[in-house]
Specification:
Elements (H helix, E strand, L loop, with lengths): L4 E5 L5 E5 L8 E5 L2 E4 H8 L10 E3 L4 E4 L11 E2 L5 E6 L10 E6 L8 E4 L11 H6 L26
Parallel strand pairs: 7-10
Antiparallel strand pairs: 1-2, 2-10, 3-9, 4-6, 5-6, 8-9
Length: 162
């Protein structure tokens, strides 16, 4: 079977992951891999700083984070988009061991060969989302309805009343 993805330079940011062939909706593309750390270990290793605007850390569950800086694979190069064509989903370990849970990236729709694969990072920071932080965590997806940041609101917006 031919490779389904390839890593190359992205117009969104740095490296990106691209479909090497047409992919159907619901296709499992790649597992997000890397070293497992507790949240405290991740804060100790990476300083817990929100000022970098760059991370290969993926929150696995309430106990663990995947650090793709160590033992990571091509999944770490998937970029964020406000209109993603993929999603990340949790596969819980059948024995209930949270350290063995996994993250899989799958397509949300049919993806054409050559198209960049993206997902919504869904980053929520504890601190206020200041103009400075929004600039640090800027989104470059180019979508028509781009929010300008990869940060998510801390609480859902209420619908306006007519």
């Amino acid at each position: 079977m031919p490779r389904s993805i390839v890593v190359r330079r992205s117009s969104i940011h740095g490296n990106g992951v691209f479909a090497a062939r047409d992919l159907p909706k619901g296709a499992e593309v790649i597992e997000y891999r890397g070293r497992r750390l507790t949240h405290d270990e991740a804060d100790d290793c990476h300083g817990g700083s929100v000022d970098s605007g760059h991370t290969f850390l993926f929150t696995l569950n309430e106990h663990y984070v995947i650090d793709a800086n160590v033992g990571g694979n091509a999944a770490r190069w998937l970029n964020h988009s406000c209109t993603p064509n993929c999603q990340a989903w949790l596969i819980e370990h059948p024995g209930g061991d949270p350290s063995r849970d996994r993250i899989m990236i799958e397509t949300l729709r049919k993806v054409r060969g050559g198209e960049e694969l993206t997902y919504d990072y869904g980053i929520i920071l504890d601190e206020p989302h200041t103009t400075r932080l929004k600039r640090i965590w800027a989104c470059r997806c180019g979508a028509q309805r781009c929010t300008g940041t990869i940060l998510k609101p801390k609480r859902p917006r209420r619908e306006s009343r007519a």
